[in-house]
Amino acid sequence: MSGFNLTFTSVNVSQNTYHKAIGRFHTSIPQIVDRGAVVIWYFTNTSFSISLLTAPNISSSELGSLLGPWLTSLKQSGIWYASVLKQYTSFLEQYQVQQGAIPVGTQQFRSWVIPRSFVQNNNDNLTAAYRNITEGGASVIVVGLNVSQTLHRHGAGGVDEAVLLAWRDALIDTSIIT
To answer: What CATH number corresponds to the domain at position 135?
Structure first.
């Protein structure tokens, strides 16, 4: 089990550079979740955070290789970030070290399941929509996962296990918070 988290802000970079970095992250999601990982990230118009990337059966060096091109692009864009990439013995250990308690608050949520094909074919439009939403004052929380991956990995390929049809081709679930 490996885990990763990361944060960066829009300080000292343009809004275009900041949002392009988020868009580039989206292009790396398919290869990460197709290996069985789950990633939760959130952002506003000034800060981005991968709060928890949980990667069972993936070594920290493998996960580092999956994230490497994106991390390199952050450096090339002049974006300073803080991150932790570490190997853990269990999910509980990773959660306790990298996530911790989640604060309770009063907010309004709205969520959309976004298909893989939309992220892959319309990433610029998705990034522009996120930018419009965050510049309007909302926050975005996104969960990237592949709900079909488990059965395919265990030899039951072709089984449609999601009751909600949208999850069968989902790549991310986006929640908008005001």
So the answer is: 3.40.462.20
What domain range includes position 101? 2-177
Phi, psi of 47 (to 5 degrees): -145, 145
Rounded CA gap, 54 and 144, in Å?
A: 11
pLDDT per residue as tens digits for the range 22-71: 999 999 999 999 999 999 999 999 999 999 899 999 999 999 999 999 99
Cα–Cα distance measured from residue 8 to residue 24, given in angstroms and rounded to the nearest whole number: 14
Q: What is the DSSP letter of 163?
A: S
**Tens-digit pLDDT profile for residues 79-109:** 999 999 999 998 888 888 877 666 665 555 5
pTM, entire model: 0.85
Overall number of domains in the chain: 1
Retrieve residue 106's tokens. Answer: 């009063």
CA dist 72 and 79 (Å) reads 10
